[in-house]
Amino acid sequence: IGRSGGGAFVLGGYSQGAMVTSEVAFRSDTPLRALVLLSGTMVDEASWERNFSRRRGLPVFIAHGRADTILPFAVADRFRLKLEAAGVGKEIIRNEPGIGYRLTAHRQEG
Predict the structure, then answer these.
(1) Pair 26, 45: CB distance under 8 Å
(2) Residue 46 needs a FRET pair 20 to 30 A away by CA distance; which of 14, 79, 80, 81 works?
(3) In whole angstroms, what is the distance from residue 107 CA to residue 110 CA?
(4) What number is the average pLDDT over the span 41-50?
(5) What is the pTM of this model?
(6) For residue 28, which phi and psi values (nearest 5 degrees)?
(7) Quick check: 91 pLDDT over 90?
(8) Listing from the earlier edge strand, what are the strands of the sheet with 32-38?
């Protein structure tokens, strides 16, 4: 990952982007300030879990809709619990009831 200035940065993504974000975080030594994971899921769970200790204290924001039928909320919540157990930062999980696989809680009529 190229960047100017050489410092750590916040890395995040939505859906597959969240999975790539997790892959970078837990399979590389790229300096990171925080992670933002929106509607993602675990892909390489065993490998990521082996590397959680390298990211101890890293802030993580996780947002996932409880009504998501594409990438189930339960998997995101299990990911959060594993991160907490490993001491990986401050996790926040926003679980919107009735919200599925999308970025906003805005509901369209009709």
Answers:
(1) no
(2) 14
(3) 10
(4) 93
(5) 0.80
(6) -140, 175
(7) no
(8) 9-14, 32-38, 60-63, 91-94
